[in-house]
Amino acid sequence: MKKSAKGDCYEVHGRAFIEGMLGLLCHGTVWHPDVGWHGHCWIELNEDVVTDFSNGHNVVLRQEVYYRVGKVKDVKRYNVEQVREMIVKEGIWGPWEDGNG
Questions:
Q1: pTM for the structure as a whole
Q2: Which domain holds residue 85?
Q3: How many domains does the chain have?
């Protein structure tokens, strides 16, 4: 499977999600002072909690805090069936240019 851009967020969260994580897999655009605007992936466990364990992190935050700190925008959300379909269709963990969300 082809690797995506810098970091491991798409693969780490995609694997966790299809292996039984609940909630929704999210792709979006975030702001980081060292990187600027970039694509990112995380998991929303419900409408209030976000988990992000890419690049060795172990972040669990309220969604409103995560979105505010990361200046999150352009979010696309996927259920497990959509994730499996997109991995097969696109041949990568993400991001996908599919219009879902």
A1: 0.84
A2: 9-90
A3: 1
